[in-house]
Amino acid sequence: MHDIRWRAFWLGFLLVTVSLVVWAVVDEIAALLVFGVGVVLYLTTHLYWIHQLLQWFNKPDLATMPLGTGIWEDVFAAIYHQQRRYSRSQTQLSSALDRFRHAASALPDGVVLLNGHDLIEWCNPPAERHLGLSMKQDVGQPISYLVRSSDFISYLDSHDYTDPIKLKSWRLADTTLELQVIPFGVNQKLLISRDISQLEKVEHMRRDFIANVSHELRTPLTVVGGFLETLSDMDGAVPDSTRSYFDMMQEQTGRMRRLVEDLLTLSQLENSPTIPQDTEIDINALLSMVMNEARGLSNDRHTITLEADTTLNLTGALEELHSALGNLVSNAIRYTPTGGSIHISWKTRGTDGVFSVKDTGLGIEQQHIDRLTERFYRVDRSRSRETGGTGLGLSIVKHILTRHQARLDIESEFGKGSTFSAVFPKARLVHKANATSNQPAHTA
Ligand code: ADP
Q1: Distance in Å, CA 150 to ligand 1 centroid
Q2: What are the C-alpha distances in Å from 99 to residues 94, 104, 107, 308?
Q3: In the structure, what pLDDT confidence band is assigned to residue 441 with cuts at 50, 70 and 90?
């Protein structure tokens, strides 16, 4: 730029000098003429190159770029370099895009790129296969017009994409798809589809196997248990010297029967995705059952108190909820030493309904808490066995609560006690009219 300005200055200086010399040698008219012609030539040159530049911009090709003269030589050279850099980065960009497209096409999972309005921007061949899309025809179409599943549409509208959803394919027989939306950029989304048919089959086989084995074991165990009990009750049938072996056999058969029953319960829960009946449950009746069982199990070894909002009912499957809430109470009794206390409560917290069991028992170290609902996870194996545990109780509780859109919250302090809370969403609560509120605490 600096250079161009100097050049313009020297050109102007030359013209003025020549004009002055002509004035001195000839006269002022001739000098004015020389000056005027010089200025007109100068402007005409500029106009010519501006026109050339505009012409070139209509069809910008590096091969046809004008060379220019004077200061225009510099201008064209600058544009040439700029254009070369631009076309080099364009080439790099488009080859990167091609590489990305090839890689995405080679993915076994379907990938659909959605814009802020859920319109399809791009998809790879597996997505075309899974979801029946066509990259040629469907770009710019709303995904909800093409994936016409109410579950998918409500998932897309929910804006909660933490977990994927499973869908039976409406196009491919015996195919189950897992769909997950991943938001990115400004309102953009990636829709990932995965064929999980094989996984589902294996999972189905595993569930069937456990259910069948448990079922097959139930009858022989009942027979063995029954005979052991009969023999044990018969006078003189069991010699005193072998009585302790008999007791051990009975205890172990009982444990195996409980295990088989718990495995069957889990299989039943897993094999039926929805609850069998969804009715309003009389919370008073349910709490009395739970309290009676707690008293029976505790056998006066603990102080058990109940505080319940009796105006608040719950909807769901009675048998399942009885099993889940009873399990939490029975755990509290089994893991609280004699003399400890257990407080059961049922009340609202915000919009949720919370059933909680607070004990002054052994407590659980923090590192175990997240794993308690895994099958057969026990903090202390011998303690669980001593108290007749199977290691499946909390797993069953979690399954039942999930089926009721509820969750299990666990708070515990090692050596001080634990609070297990079943938190039910607003949709599962029924506020009874004309009922007495806050029943006073009962003590057993
Ligand atoms: P288990 O049949 O062994 O009791 P659960 O699934 O019911 O199996 O519980 C898993 C583990 O969680 C138990 O083994 C026990 O260590 C721990 N646990 C459950 N409830 C309590 C509680 N109230 N206090 C202390 N530990 C508990």
Answers
A1: 39
A2: 9, 9, 13, 63
A3: very low
